[in-house]
Amino acid sequence: MKQSRLSLFITASLLGVSPQMTMATPQQSEDDLAIENITVTAQRKAQSIQIAPVSVTALSARDIDRMQIDNAKDLSQVAPNVSIQPVTGGSASIAPYVRGGGVRDTAVITSEAEVGIYIDDVYQPRSAASFIEMLDLERIEVLRGPQGTLYGRNSSAGAVKFVSRTPDELFRLKNEAGVGSWNEIYNKLSVSGPLNDSGKLRGGISAMYRDRDGGRQYNQTLEREVGEERYAGFQGDLYYVADDYDIRFKAYYTDYDSDGLYGSALEPAQLDKPYTEIPFVSGSIDTVLSPEESYTSDKQYGANLKITAELNHSMELVTITAWNDLQDDWAVGFSGGVQPALLGLPGDEPLEVFYRESTSEQDSFTQEIQLLGDTLNGALSYIGGLYYFTESGSQYIDNMMFFAPDYTEFNISTDSYAGFGQVTWHVSDQVDITIGGRYTKDNKEIDALVSGEAVLRDVDFSRFTPKLGIDYKIADNILMFAIFTGGFKAGGYNGLASTAEALDTVVQMQLMDAYELGIKSDWMKGRLRANLAAFFNDYEKLQQGVVTDDGIFIAENYDAEHKGIEAELQFRVTSEFSLWANGVYQSNEYTNTYASEGQSSGTLLGNSMTGAFDYQYAAGGDYTVNIGDGVFTLGANVNRRGDYYSTADNAKIGHVPDMTLYDAYMSYQLDRWTVKLAGKNLTDEKYWFTGFGFSVVQPRFMADPKMWRLSVAYLIE
Question: For 337, phi and psi rounded to 5 degrees?
Fold first, then answer.
């Protein structure tokens, strides 16, 4: 009967039938006030977050719902030392930063992220920010620091793991429908459960459709509102459970379209003013002037297969196979509209003097094998693995700069091979010592055409990165740990290069020594949680991009130091009232230049690293009270972040001001139904997430303004 109900609802969802969803909240008793101990797989094995000796922030399904984590960018509001922002190449891709490590040019296929994005243990080389919207998420894990010893694709700054709910033996259905800012309408459905009488074969579907009008900004030249978006995503999930193995197969498809991203032009004659006082040509950041149409069209599809086999009572074999295809097209007017008088031309209609249109397609395949278990009567735990990643892609970019057309074509291929392993010696019930390492070899080929000149290169990068850690369980509720980890990012090619010579100059590989000391603790019988971490990252040949006064984009290498302290607190005040807070204080700078070796101009020496604020703190809470036959919940959070530079040259145009953002929600749940009103950036702060400039091209790009949603939800489980 259960599988029949599941089949019926899957069929109904495909035909557009949309039942409503809610999230039931069981009543808490006085004996159940301890903070939820989320099980994470940060070390590729299931363990409580409080005994995992790594810096990891974990959000449960309930956290994701009440903190309004609708897409990857929302993690910036709640996770310490994390900033996930849009890029300037279209409106779909993201630029994730963790502890100041990250890259902004992810819309160019030659770039390689420093923060690994994983969905169900599968590395996403070029995923869109909206990809997770349609997933039925069980949790999110944010790992800070180099990730390579235990992870397939080496990530030198950190990793973000999105874990979707695995179909189980229960029939579940969730559906949420709502409206929001700029005439937004959306519907999100997930349904899962057993497909046969034994319950060993299970299946699920998650899907979402979202559509909104323009209104995010107003284009004065085109005389219309811009910011229109349409998104549709679908994932099918099959899961088979046997006595000593299980198999999970997923296939997905997403389709995202928008009328693109628009820059807001600054007054070039007033750039000498303080960076927060430079006026916009249009008068405000949410009014743009570009006469050219922007757009973004992003389609992504693929499949994953994960097999877990128990070889004996203490040994497990895991294989992960994945294929992904991404088609990403976009166009952006980067100047934001320039007044003709600045170019010595007649008229008063703004002109677009830096327009870029891109068409790209990337195809990737990964294969990972892991062997993990215990030996010597449990005295040693181990995990070892082999990893292969290959990606091929092409990108065609049409540039128009100061009315001069230019054309660039990239054809790239990357093959990455790695072997990794980690052994933990359980010295006693209190002390563990961990030794690990990874050897990575990357081969990168490029066949390009820049301004009519050919570039053909084939380079290899290889590195062994070690890990050494010790953790000491002071008491049942207190864990201390110390870790040394080597970080590595392969070199490559500057995809923003505007000359064949610049593209033909290989960017050197980036190395890092990362040191960390942390403590995790629970107090008041688990009602109060306090986790602290201090870190020091020593970079060698950190890869940075710079734009010259002539509009030439170059890539350089610098040494840098980054150190800081992070804290996370949670307090379950009563069964109805919970509070949380986190914060970071840090400092960083570029400490050495390779100008003498011809790899750098030296102009960044002493500057702050990109995307790294001096401080950040966030706090929030929620209160629940019974009203009538239902439950009313009120929640809010605030995020205060210091100013930072979004470009390595620390130019005023890319200097982002300190900012305080507020989010809140209220909901009422009655039986299976929930009505919820939620808002983000409630004070409607109008600010930018980046900017860059040369000559009369001086744009800044606006971050999200105030947004709201009203939803009705329904749940069966």
Answer: 100, 115
